[in-house]
Amino acid sequence: MNTGSTGGRRRLPLSLRRRAVPWERQRPTWREARPAVIAEALKRARARPSGNWYVVGASRDVRGGRPLARTVAGQEVVVWRDAGGRAVAGPGICPHLGAPLRDGSVRCGTLVCRWHGLALDGGSFAGWEPFPAHDDGVLVWVRLDAVGGEPPLDAPVVPRRPAPARALSAVYTGTGTCEPEDVVANRLDPWHGAWFHPYSFVDLTVTGAPDGPAVPDEDGFTVEVSFRVAGRLVVPVRAVFTAPGPRTVVMRITEGEGVGSVVETHAVPLGSDDRGRPRTAVVEAVVASSDRPGFAVARGAAPLLRPLVRAAAGRLWRDDLAYAERRWALRATGRFPG
After folding, report:
1. Taking a C-beta distance cutoff of 8 angstroms, is the pair 236, 224 a contact?
2. Which CA distances in Å does 145 have to 48, 50, 87, 181, 215?
3. Helix 180-187 vs helix 35-47: crossing angle, to nearest 10
4. Section 253-281 average pLDDT
5. What's the mean per-residue pLDDT of the chain?
6. Please, what sign has the CA dihedral across residues 76, 81, 83, 84?
7. Alpha helices, DSSP H only, in 159-233?
8. Measured CA angle at 209 (ends 39, 231), to 5 deg
9. Is 278 left (phi over 0), alpha (psi -120 to 50) or beta?
């Protein structure tokens, strides 16, 4: 990809599209987006180990006087921080009379049930047994061996990220009526980007895709794409999509502005709704970095920027969850053509 500057980086991150074409006149990608390629990539992702680890939410959401609560595959889970600031987790049902611990209060690192005051410090107590928890600095994970059914791992498979000291991170969470594989399949179809999200992506070309058996380090989709800023102003990059686990897809910028920045998409099964349909949470972490001097200012304004990043992710996922939900609905009724 031509970055238009000496040393492989533009002096300014923006570029002007000189040969912009209307949405309907862009090159069709449906022939390249072969269902078999997407299906095989999904199959390989689902075969990779997770060690029974599930993302619960953002690290910065585990704080204050209330626990972070999530239902994973029908199992209520609560996470909070003990007196030392360490993330601890366990069942969200009080062992005394079944009170919802999500409504409890955290006092000096102890979770106190609001029904009768049973207090939990994160250790085994009164029939309550903790779950292994892991805080990677951006996301909090919980290991649920009874749910996952795999050989457990001591820690989750956390994708490589930019160093925290030079990165800005934000986490978006959304839910949809589908299964985790439908979310993963969406991310393993990069061909839809400029057609389905023209407000964000233009001039998208998939320059490399796995075809046949592949090893994890080579099992990726390489994409050249421009992020739309305003009008014909864009930021061109090269990115690679990989699936390091059965419920995770990572987009990593490998060339252009923000090299090394990642977008991690984690699909978390929640359980079934009152109609028996599966519900899945999308927990997406954006971890951005840049060696431009101005990026330090952006990191300083992180509290103001995070809502904007989440809003941008939310706009994309309104479309992509509709894609995932449609895929599940067709699969569930035997009509999915892929």
Report:
1. yes
2. 16, 11, 18, 19, 26
3. 120
4. 97
5. 93
6. positive
7. 180-187, 193-196
8. 105
9. beta
